[in-house]
Amino acid sequence: KFILTQPHSVSESPGKTVTISCTRSSGSIGSNYVQWYQQRPGSSPTPVIYEDNQRPSGVPDRFSGFIDSSSNSASLTISGLQTEDEADYYCQSYDSDNVVFGGGTKLTVL
Amino acid sequence: EVQLLESGGGLVQPGGSLRLSCETSGFTFLNYAVTWVRQVPGKGLEWVSSINPGGVTTYYADSVKGRFTISRDNSRHISHLQMNSLRAEDTAIYYCAKDRTEWEVLMGFDVWGRGTMVTVSS
Fold this sequence. Notes:
The complex is a heterodimer of chains A (110) and B (122).
Chain A: E1 4-5, E2 9-12, E3 18-24, E4 35-39, E5 46-49, E6 63-68, E7 73-78, E8 87-95, E9 98-101, E10 105-109
Parallel strand pairs in A: 2-10
Antiparallel strand pairs in A: 1-3, 3-7, 4-5, 4-8, 6-7, 8-9, 8-10
Chain B: E1 3-7, E2 10-12, E3 18-25, E4 34-39, E5 45-51, E6 58-60, E7 68-73, E8 78-83, E9 92-99, E10 109-112, E11 116-120
Parallel strand pairs in B: 2-11
Antiparallel strand pairs in B: 1-3, 3-8, 4-5, 4-9, 5-6, 7-8, 9-10, 9-11
């Protein structure tokens, strides 16, 4: 089994760009798709990126996902930050019989 | 509209049992895997269990293996999570989620329910 490691928190100002990393402990990051979920306080998680870099319908193109094989990590980039983007973000991947979530990153837009 | 609605949560003593249900609508249930994820309030997401579309293959986190059983009734569009030998550390909000891709399992989840709270305490 592997672990996905995310920074505990990030903060940035409105209008700026922020990137959240998700590093896989073992096995190749590219061997299984990575998903990203946004969770606002009191709400259920909702996907913002699936299959590494695909946006679900309704998710603005300010959200983008990337895979970096050299660092064995995935990243979520949010550009043109808005106050409504303030939330917890979780990466998620899987292997043959297991689903793994990252520990989550609290994004503060200040 | 795709909807999932969990029920069955509540307060139970350590060692007790609970059966959670996930009622679904708005999609072809028998084509999609179902997954249960839990979250201690204020903490991160933890995968619990998944079941493939046909209901034949099940998957469990090590933390619940041997105590929890996932099932589904494709005629009623519902999934259940039977939780036995409950421990204090099982206290969490339990979400059910629909897998994104038809006929796949574990890959990712596009619609989540609102969750049901399970509290294990004496």
